[in-house]
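// run 5 | inverse folding | seed 20
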């Protein structure tokens, strides 16, 4: 099961990265040779980058390939290092769960956030003089 998970995450990250490469190639080529950019290429690239990061993050965590600061590790006992690793994993898990919770919250629609009283619009239209009639 673990191998399947690693394969799926790796394939997803690789396909998204390849998509970024192809999209960028054709976008730059289109701008240089046809003077036309691909509409929405920046947004698609940003979404693909999110996929690359969040598909590769579990692989880095499983393989313990994070960037580490280990200047004090030689001073700490193995038991203290295990506790330190547990605490760091708990804090990271909590932060990622909080991020997932924030992303799952419903956002208000843009139409609902912009309101204009109809009386202001009507008084402006009614009170403006009509020219040419």
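// decoded
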């Amino acid at each position: 099961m673990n191998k399947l998970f690693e394969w799926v995450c790796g394939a997803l990250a690789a396909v998204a990265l390849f998509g970024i490469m192809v999209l960028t190639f054709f976008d730059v080529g289109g701008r240089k040779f046809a003077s036309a950019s691909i509409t929405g290429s920046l947004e698609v690239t940003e979404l693909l980058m999110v996929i690359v990061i969040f598909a590769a993050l579990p692989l880095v965590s499983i393989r313990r390939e994070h960037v580490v600061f280990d200047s004090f590790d030689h001073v700490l006992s193995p038991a203290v290092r295990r506790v330190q690793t547990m605490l760091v994993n708990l804090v990271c898990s909590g932060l990622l769960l909080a991020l997932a919770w924030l992303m799952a919250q419903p956002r208000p629609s843009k139409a609902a956030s912009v309101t204009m009283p109809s009386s202001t619009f009507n008084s402006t239209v009614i009170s403006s003089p009509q020219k040419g009639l």
